[in-house]
Write the structure tokens for this entry.
Amino acid sequence: MSHARPIFTAAEYEGVWKDLGLTGSPGEVDFLGEFVVLAATRGSRVGLRCRDEGGGKLTVSAMSTRDIRPGLRYVFAVFPKKEWKEINGNSIP
């Protein structure tokens, strides 16, 4: 299993985008009403699993294959803040 990282600001999002060596625009996200979750791996596949724990609590985990391949695979997902108060046990700002 890989780590799912929540991102709550445009600056953090742009920094992660650059750290991954991605070029071009990361795309528009309204961080007042949304947040992003990132998972990355050197395995051949990566995906996110989301679970609604009830009461505005969201659990997001990243699943990836154990094989190591050249390059990097990643997935970004955008979630609405209004539906969630907490992600992985941490309050959403």
